Amino acid sequence: SKNKHSATYTIYDDNMHRKELYEAMLLDSINDALNENQFKLVFQPKYDIQCDKPTMSSAEVLIRWDHPEFGEVKPDFFIPLFEQNGLIRQLDRYVWRETAKQMHKWRQTYGVNIPFSVNVSRIDIFDNDLIDYLKRTLSEYHIDPKDLHLEITETAYTENVEQIVKVVKELQDAGFKVEMDDFGKGYSSFNMLTTLPLNALKLDIGFIKGIAENNKEMNLLECILEIAKLLNLTVIAEGVENSKQYLLLKNAGCDAIQGYYFSKPLSTKDFESLLKYSC
Ligand code: C2E
Ligand code: MG
Ligand code: MG
Ligand code: MG
């Protein structure tokens, strides 16, 4: 495949911008990447903060691409690329299957029964086989749907209202838990909060950044926590990076947090050490 890449390079070098060239090369290497296991899962714990001491209650599964030529490629860069090129379904299915496999293994080895969450692209919402695929895959590994939480990004809810309402209801009926990811990042639709049967809200990192510096942002956070409580939604804050933010969130009644302050996303091996330690 080295030759294939250098061929692409010679043809496009003069006409394409660096970014476009890089994108083309990445797209070109996806099949190899899937076949050669270049994609890895990492696990970022979510901590319950309304108990005596913070307790790991779940973990989010995030994908990493360790490219043989480019090194680590960021999901923020390649996920949109996969979405635009009809490849995200294959990638997300890979992540979900590997997650189920890993959960099964950890249950057998360490007896841990915490739920895990995976990301669902807004494109996956249009996959007619989405729910059956998830159910089939989980049942292969004897995982109950209630133990797989699905994080669907906020933008999905504003773009295709009818479709998302239908799919989220079907997911709930099938027993999955649904979390609205990146809440507060774009045009948060409060209407969606009452229209959809959601289980949790994940507050976007951009929303958490200012709470320790700015009264207005802290007031807004308190209002959102209030609304969430009325709607019976669990609130998870993402991107918590310091003790100040953590304490503000805890005192304001936020249910759970995720962020570098408690843990970065961990490799399979490092997450295993954490499981061993906490059992
Ligand atoms: P997300 O689902 O909102 O995930 C949170 C992102 O914030 C992750 O970036 C995580 O590593 C990062 N993060 C966690 N704690 C902190 C913190 O304290 N500070 C800062 N600055 N960042 C923190 P990551 O892993 O690079 O993923 C970026 C996005 O790519 C994800 O955002 C998600 O939208 C998407 N993504 C990742 N894996 C998958 C996947 O398997 N499928 C799909 N469809 N999308 C994925
Ligand atoms: Mg997420
Ligand atoms: Mg998120
Ligand atoms: Mg986010």
* Structural class assignment: alpha/beta
How widely separated are the two ends? Answer: 45 Å
- Largest beta sheet: what is the strand line-up? 1-2-4-5-6-7-8-9
Q: Number of DSSP strands? A: 9
Mean pLDDT: 91
Order of helices and strands: HHHEEEHHEHEHHEHEHHEHEH
Helical region count? 13
- Ligands: ligand C2E, magnesium ion
Choose one word for the global shape: globular
Q: Portion of residues in helices?
A: 40-55%
The radius of gyration over CA amounts to 20 Å
Strand residue percentage: 15-25%
Give the low-pLDDT segments: 1-8
Sheet of most strands: 8 strands, mixed, barrel
Can you put this structure into words, describing what you see?
By secondary structure, the chain is α/β, with parallel strands linked by helices. The chain is about 50% helix and about 20% strand. It contains 13 helices and nine strands. It has helices at about 1-10, 20-30, 30-35, 75-85, 90-110, 130-140, 155-160, 160-175, 190-195, 205-210, 215-230, 245-250, 270-279, and strands spanning about 40-50, 55-65, 70-75, 115-120, 150-155, 175-185, 200-205, 235, 255. An eight-stranded mixed barrel has the order 1-2-4-5-6-7-8-9, surrounded by four helices. The termini are far apart. The structure holds ligand C2E and magnesium ion (3 copies). One magnesium ion binds near residues 60 and 151. GO terms for molecular function: cyclic-guanylate-specific phosphodiesterase activity. This is GGDEF/EAL domain-containing protein. It comes from Butyrivibrio hungatei.
